[in-house]
Amino acid sequence: MAPEVLSLVGDVAELMLREIDQLVAEMDAAEVAVAPMLGADAAIAAEMSASNRANAARLLTTLARRDAGGAPIDVPPEALDIVRTVVRRGIDLEVIYQAYRRGQNVAWQRFLAHAGRMVPPGPQFVTLLEVTSQLMFDYVDHVVSRVIADAQREREEVLGGALARRAETVHLILDGAPVDHRRASERLGYQLARHHTALVLWAEPASGTQGALESAATLLAQAAGARTPLTLPAGTSTLWAWLGTGSEPALDALREAITKAQPNIRVAVGPVRVGIDGFRRSHDAALAMHRLLSGQRGGDRVALYREFEVTTLAARDLDRAAEFVATTLGPLAADTLGAARLRQTLRVFLEEAENAPRAAARLHTHRNTVLQRVTRATELLGHRPGARRLPVELALELAHHLGPRVLARE
Fold first, then answer.
1. Are 103 and 30 in contact (CB under 8 A)?
2. pTM for this predicted structure
3. Which residues form the PucR C-terminal helix-turn-helix domain (predicted)?
4. CA angle, corner 401, sides to 397 and 405, nearest 5?
5. How far apart are CA 407 and CA 402, in angstroms?
6. Which residue, 311, 342, 375, sits at the end of a domain?
7. 181 within a domain of the structure (yes/no)
8. Range of the domain at 325
9. Is residue 345 located within the same domain as residue 397?
10. Are strands 195-203 and 302-304 parallel, antiparallel or unpaired?
11. Average pLDDT for the chain
C-alpha cells in the first residue's frame, strides 16, 4: 500500500474516532430499524450499542496506526456478549448478519463523506476507497464468522442444557407429576412457593421473534413488581411465562407496559394463584384464553383473566356459544358495525346498572345517544334486557370478546 494512501486512511480514521459517539448512535438506530428486537428493551439495546462501539473503535484504531502490515484482527468481548444474549433470547441468528451489514454500511457512508472532503476525485481517491473497503470488509467478515461460531456453540449448550432442563421441569409440573417444589425451584431458578401469574404471549400476525416476546415478558414483570420472569418458548411466535411475587401483583399496570413492546405482541394473563398447584392452574387459565383469542383481530393487547373468566367458561364449545349468542340476541348478533355499536352501548349500559350518564361517560358520547341506542337494541331483542338479564349479559360478553367467532354473518 502506498504510504500516501496509508496516511490518508489514518487521517479519516482519526476523524471518525473523534466522532465515535455520533457514529455509534447512527449504527444503533440503523440496526434497530432493520431488527427491532435489538431495541426491544434497555438491556439488549445497551449490549448492542457496546458491541458497535467496541467494533468501531477496534477497526478505526487499527486504521489510525497507519501500519502497512496491519494488526492482528481479534473480536471484542462486547461483540461476543451481545451474540450470546441473542441466542439466549431465542432470536434468529440471521439478525446478527443483518445488524453487522447495516452497521457496516453506516460506517462506510461516514468514511465516504470524510474522504470526499479530504481527497479530490481521481485515481488516488479510487485507491483510497478500494483499500479501505477491503480492510473494512475483511474485519467485519472475520468478526461475523467468529461471533456466529460462538453463537452456534452457545445455542447447542442452551438447547442441550439449561433450556432442556427447564422445559422438562415445567412440563412435569404442568402434567401434575409428583414434583418436590424445592428441587424444582432450584432447577428452574424460580421460587415455586410464591404467588404465580401465568402469561401466554404471542405475536399476531406471527412475525415476532422469541427475543421480542422475552423482552415483552420482562417489561410486564417489571410493571407487575415481579422479578425476572420464568419463560419457556412454546413455538416460533408464542412464549409461556410466569411472574413470581410475594403477594398480589399490580396487574392493571400491564396495559401500560405492553405499549412499550412490539405492537403485534398480545398477552393472556392468568389468575394469581399460590404454590406449585397455582403455577399450573394459572397457566391452564392463560392457555384457555390464548386458545380463544389467538387469530382474532382487534381487541385489547392485554387480556386479564378476571375480565375473561365467564367468557372462557362459556366458550369451551364455540359452536354452542355461537348458537347461544344468536338465539339470545337475535338480530343484535349480526356481525355488522351497526349491531356492534348497539351491543357495546347495551353492554356498558347494563354494567353501569342502567345509568345512562355513567354509560355515556364511559362511551365518550351523549346521554341521549346512549338512550337512543338502548331503545333500538331493545327493539331488536324483542324484550327489555332486564327481562332476561343474565343470558343477555353473557351473550353480550361473548360477542364483545370473541367477535366474529360467535356472531352471525349477513
1. yes
2. 0.55
3. 342-397
4. 105
5. 8
6. 311
7. no
8. 317-405
9. yes
10. unpaired
11. 85
Helix (H) or strand (E) holding 255: helix 254-258
Q: Which three cell numbers stand for residue 167?
A: 422445559
Tens of pLDDT, residues 177-197: 888 888 899 888 899 999 999
Domain count, the chain: 3
**Per-residue pLDDT tens over the stretch 267-299:** 999 999 999 999 999 999 998 888 888 777 667
Beta-sheet pairing, 238-245 with 230-233: antiparallel
Which residues sit opposite 203 in a β-bridge?
265
Asked if residue 335 is part of any domain, the answer here is yes
Judgement on whether residues 353 and 214 belong to the same structural domain of the protein: no
172 inside domain: no
DSSP type of residue 208? -
Last residue of a domain, one of 261, 289, 311: 311
Residues 328 and 399 sit within 8 Å (Cβ to Cβ): no
Residue 68 phi, psi dihedral angles, 5° rounding: -60, -30
CA distance linking residue 374 with residue 378, whole number of Å: 6
Query: Could you tell me the three cell numbers for 67?
Result: 501500519
| Inside any domain, residue 153 | yes
